Amino acid sequence: MEAYLQHLVAQSVGIALIIVAVVAFFESLALVGLILPGTVMMATLGTLIGSGQVGLYEAWLAAGLGCFVGDWASYFIGRRFKGPLHNWKFLQRYQALLDKTGSALDRHSFATVIIGRFIGPTRPLVPMVAGMLSLPPYKFAPPNIVGCITWPPVYFLPGILAGVAIDIPAGHNSTVFKWLLLGSAALLWLTAWLLWRWFRSDKNSGDAMARWLPLARVRVLSVLGVIATAVCFVMLSKQPLMPVYGHLLWKVITR
């Protein structure tokens, strides 16, 4: 997939931006986003940004417009076809998620629309459910705009960091640095996930993962994760290639 995207990007920056917008659109579109590996594709596009093949701000704008159009298409699909959607067998397998999303929208519509954009399974569902519940457009629009502005850079970020690392000159020191960078990123993600489960322990008690990760174990692993992540970042800061990496990253941000 990455090689194919790189081939298309090499043809034209315009084509690259269209791809970014289309990926963001389908990642946000009702139901389609449930089966599309959009997170992986956004990270891949982030790699192209980090390597300098696509401009960050152009891609950010394209992705924002794509997810905005996808969200509003999903909203109007839910509003127009709420009857058939309730009876569709495909959606019934997501009934528990739909019920939770609807309940959250009833209580905290603003926060739910924004937070839902950053959570994979709910991203293509929240706008559709908002339409099915006939949430007024004036209540849906403000959080949707905030979400579409803030979402793209967050999902581009892992790819951007990887793309910048690719540009570091090859050598023994660079190999060690890249592995340390990868390990730090993986530890940061894992620790954030563990802290999230700890924070939501009262709501996660009934899921399948709770059998393997009871609250006591989550607490211990979270603390260990925080310590290990901090140690990795201290080690990164002392690497001689860190200033080079920071300079390359700054060039991506200011380009």
TrEMBL record:
The main location is membrane
InterPro entries xref list: DedA-like, VTT_dom
Highest taxon in the source lineage: Bacteria
Can you give the residue ranges of the VTT domain? 36-159
* Keyword Acetylation listed: no
Transmembrane parts of this sequence? 12-36, 56-77, 176-196, 216-236
Compartment(s) where it occurs, according to its Swiss-Prot or TrEMBL record:
Cell membrane
Q: Transmembrane as a keyword?
A: yes
Q: Would you tell me the Gene Ontology cellular component terms?
A: plasma membrane
The membrane topology of this protein is:
Multi-pass membrane protein
Query: Keywords assigned by UniProt?
Result: Cell membrane, Membrane, Transmembrane, Transmembrane helix
Fetch the PANTHER family from UniProt: INNER MEMBRANE PROTEIN DEDA-RELATED, INNER MEMBRANE PROTEIN YABI
Query: What family does the database annotate?
Result: Belongs to the DedA family.
Question: Could you tell me what this protein is called?
Answer: DedA family inner membrane protein
Organism for this UniProt entry: Ewingella americana (strain ATCC 33852 / DSM 4580 / CCUG 14506 / JCM 5911 / LMG 7869 / NCTC 12157 / CDC 1468-78)
From the broadest rank down, the organism's phylogenetic lineage runs:
Bacteria, Pseudomonadati, Pseudomonadota, Gammaproteobacteria, Enterobacterales
